[in-house]
Amino acid sequence: MIEYRDLIIYTHPEVKEEIEASSLLIDILSIRMRDEVLLIGIGNGLLPVYAAKRSRKVIATDVNPHALSCGVKNTITNKTYNVELREGLFFEPVNDENFDLILFNAHYLLNLESIDETILYNSINRIGDYLKENGRFYILDSSQNSELLRTKLESAGLDAENIITEKCADEEIIVVKGNLKNG
């Protein structure tokens, strides 16, 4: 169990997510109470619970059953009943829904044995398909992937900028913020 700000987060040994990486995103995250949020990669449940306390609704997806279990436990513990957890890979569980804010936890997802880097970065190309007009996104990733990430976002017609780079555990983590290109 971890206490983080006003939250209690239960963890699981089969969910490999560093709180430091998630807190890097949380520290710069801008969420509005009216936002409908999509989180790709639940991790230990800190991000969906944090986002739920600050938004209208959160849908969080993951392929790891242990992450889904953490999500359920942490949603109940923190009384964030506006979180909907869905099992599935990347955008599969959300079909044609659109969101004001998408949080893509690429750093956590790349730590899963079942996730291939090529599949992950190809799915990042689809972020714009799920954003509402004036929607925005944040991606948490390893800095060693920053050039590949920037190329994928550009080719998908998305504006993006690196907001912060910081050393967490044994690697540098970046947070990228972006939105659809205008016009």
List the helices and strands and how they pair.
Elements: E1 2-4, E2 7-9, H1 19-28, E3 36-40, H2 46-52, E4 57-62, H3 65-77, E5 83-87, E6 99-105, H4 106-109, H5 117-124, E7 131-142, H6 146-155, E8 158-168, E9 171-180
Parallel strand pairs: 3-4, 3-6, 4-5, 6-7
Antiparallel strand pairs: 1-2, 7-9, 8-9
Descriptive overview:
- The protein is α/β, with parallel strands linked by helices and 183 residues long.
- It has one domain (2-180): Rossmann fold.
- Helix content is 28%, strand content 34%.
- The protein contains six helices and nine strands, in the order ββαβαβαββααβαββ.
- The chain has helices spanning 19-28, 46-52, 65-77, 106-109, 117-124, 146-155, and strands at 2-4, 7-9, 36-40, 57-62, 83-87, 99-105, 131-142, 158-168, 171-180.
- Strands 5-4-3-6-7-9-8 form a seven-stranded mixed beta sheet, with helices on both faces. Strands 1-2 form a two-stranded antiparallel ribbon.
- The chain is globular, with a radius of gyration of 15 Å.
